[in-house]
Here is the input.
Amino acid sequence: MAGKNDKMERIVALCKRRGFIFQSSEIYGGLAGFWDYGPLGTELKRNIKDAWWKDMVLSPPPGPDGKDIQMVGVDCSIIMNPRVWEASGHVGGFSDPMIDCKECKGRFRLDQVFHVLLKREPNGEPFAACSVESDSPDGAVEAAEAKAKKLSKKHGGGDYVAEAISFESVMTSEELRANLPCPACDKQGCLTEPREFNLMFQTYVGALQDHTSVAYLRPETAQGIFANFKNVMDSTRVKVPFGIGQIGKAFRNEINPRNYTFRSREFEQMEIEFFCHPDEGRKWWEYWRDVRLNWYEHLGIAGDNLRPREQEEEERAHYSQACIDIEYLFPFSDEPQELEGVAHRGCYDLSKHGQYAKGKENAFAVIDEQTKERFVPHVIEPSAGADRFTLAAITEAYTVDENRASPEFMKFHPRLAPIKAAVFPLVAKDGMPEIAEPIYRQIREEYTCQFDTKAAIGKRYARMDEAGTPFCFTIDGQTKEDGTVTVRNRDDASQERIPKEGCLKYLKEKLAR
RNA sequence: GCGGGCGUAGCUCAAUUGGUAGAGCAUCAGCCUUCCAAGCUGAAUGUUGACGGUUCGAACCCGUUCGCCCGCUCCA
Here is the structure.
């Protein structure tokens, strides 16, 4: 494993040295879970987002029937009405107080642990107690059966009645808590007081800071799309089936951000919500699964490191009918990590907003003009992490070849490369810079390009290798004689000669989608 | 959030254990250089992660805090 971590450390070092990724506010000691993209990283990430937008929203592959599919884009605000997060379940379901066991390090949701009292009939005198995890009091009694039997035996056996009390009611008293046993290890008095673990960042809207003005930074971009479903339908003439795409920041106050930029507290998502007839959910889910997988492969995230993994039924959210995680094996882990999930979410989200948005009960149903059928569309959600893809592109591109002058270089897909080309005079004299400069100016009109006259040519090539620049045009002594320049290919350091007027055309051909 | 380790120039590391922080690489300038990090000359670079304490004196000892790494935990 040392070798693997070593690789990750080298990648992190290269990213800093060459200006791909910096720690946020580094001069003040940084802040866990936040990262900045430097000049090269910014170009790389923008290329990724542009490729996604172009390939998924502006010009997506033909649908299952071979015809064009309908896609439009939105760009929603980060702070929304807090009711959105009640409807989505982010406020209710994921802000529960938790308690920890200091002994066994177990963590429990306060509303899912119960104190089970064993009472002796007929006077109902409790003689023993234990704790268990369960989602209901009845379930708690059942779950406590084995523990209760043991406890009963310890206290002389005989008949008893078990009664479950929620921890919520017991925890209010310091005295009672001091004696509560842990549901996992049964040790007494080692539980912490209940603590809130809401993963949403909170803020206040307006000058008044109280509970009436609380708002949240969105923990996902999807809800802005759902909330605008009707607006998009009313303003664009799209009809089901169609999709809405969005690229934007989202925020999760992760307990423990780790693994470089992989689990950040501020991150960018590239999401599609595709709306279709309930009967066609499976078909569209398969379409998007294939489209998304092909996209990664097309951009060079291919081979053994890319691991699509269909989720088992137990693993999926209760409303989800199918889900595939597109995972990537990063050097920092033995387990593949999720880059994207393509989920079949049924009508869960639209129905929820129908319930929560007052007077909008019918806003999310559509009518099929042919059959007059009225239905709430089902949703297929390909949700990708832009920063995760960026990190995958970086680790996938990172190549070691000790035989080269540049033993480390970045083999980005040309479409993703931050710098597309460099123009070098072989030496800074004999009129070579004068020939090179106009070529550089011409390329710069359309592509990121660098011009460098300094240092030995090998050093300049090596610098471009670390930046992942796929092509370098070099003006040499022969250029003045026959008007040709050399093109150096990053991947194998091979060279060919082309007419000096043909540099831009050459790039256009190589960088075509 | 818990336990363990760590923090010195952009990077890799020194500093005789409490006595004014230095080297290589990289960077920049000049010379030289006709295809893969060559050479020569010169230059710049640090509140030793931050804050506080002990001391005549702290990179070094103590406390707090921030960050990084490893293992748990978490990951809608």
Remarks:
- The two ends of chain A are 37 Å apart (CA to CA).
- Chain A has a mean pLDDT of 88.
- The first strand of chain A starts at residue 21 and ends at 23.
- Chain A is about 30% helix and 25% strand.
